[in-house]
Specification:
Layout: E1 2-6, H1 17-29, E2 33-37, E3 50-53, E4 56-59, H2 61-72, H3 82-108, H4 111-122, H5 129-148, H6 155-173, H7 186-199, H8 206-212, H9 215-228
Parallel strand pairs: 1-2
Antiparallel strand pairs: 1-3, 3-4
Helix pairs in contact: 1-7, 1-9, 3-5, 3-6, 3-7, 6-8, 7-9
This protein binds glutathione (GSH).
């Protein structure tokens, strides 16, 4: 049985887009799995998600999906042409390398999001750690966002950049059931993990308000979330 190590379901689902991507992938591909709370200190790359399968540990959603495809087959993407795979790759990277950072900003830096996010994800910490740890990690995330570049922009610019990606996803989806057609592909694991995290998270950010204006994305997030139910 595959074990998915993730952060936990602080939002009723995993607040990490990458962990929710992995869970969505496993469900859409039909692989049986169990979820356990992961420990960053024990994770090979100090990040989650990680899976364990037959004693083998695999880290990073991209390498996990490669591993699962090699071992169990490729029910989601196996039928795609080379051009369709290239298209999928580009959209996936847009979510994971661009839109991701606006999500991170909306939770860790923007005070509106932080006030709600912090107690939800750090609520499990005992006593004084609940007060001490969140600002330390918040400062570390700010350094990362500064190095990566997002924090060089104003709040309005950061949300405007995020909305370009959300608007592009809405245009891609159109009136289809899934991002690339009638059947789910691995792009829906990423897009689902991202859009559920934007639209269903209890944080009233400009990104959520902007995404909610796209009725097709709201219905899509509901549809993918339905697939996550056991
Ligand atoms: N490229 C990785 C990214 C994973 C990732 O960024 N995970 C974040 C949570 S969304 C994490 O573990 N952050 C903790 C840290 O970097 O200290 C993947 O595809 O799995």
């Amino acid at each position: 049985m595959i074990t998915l190590y993730h952060f936990g379901d602080a939002f009723g689902f995993d607040p990490s887009p990458f962990c929710l991507k992995m869970e969505t992938y496993l469900r859409l591909a039909g692989h049986p799995f169990q979820k356990k709370r992961g420990d960053l200190r024990k994770s090979p790359k100090r990040q989650l998600p990680v899976i364990e399968d037959d004693g083998r540990i695999v880290a990073d959603s991209r390498f996990i999906i490669d591993y699962l495809k090699a071992k169990y087959g490729d029910p989601l993407d196996g039928h795609l042409t080379a051009a369709e795979r290239a298209n999928l790759h580009a959209w996936q990277r847009m979510c994971e390398e661009s839109l991701y950072w606006t999500i991170v900003y909306s939770r860790w830096i923007d005070d509106t999001g932080w006030k709600v996010f912090s107690p939800l994800v750090f609520g499990f910490l005992p006593g004084p750690l609940k007060v001490l740890v969140p600002p330390l990690i918040r400062r570390r995330v700010a350094r990362t966002l500064n190095g990566q570049g997002t924090l060089r922009h104003s709040r309005d610019e950061i949300y405007a950049l995020g909305m370009r990606d959300v608007d592009a996803l809405a245009a891609l989806l159109g009136d289809r059931s899934f991002m690339l057609g009638d059947k789910p592909t691995s792009l829906d694991a990423t897009a689902g993990g991202w859009l559920i995290n934007i639209l269903h998270a209890p944080l009233e950010t400009p990104l959520k308000a902007g995404a909610a204006k796209h009725a097709n994305l709201a219905a899509y997030a509901d549809r993918i979330r339905e697939r996550l139910k056991v």
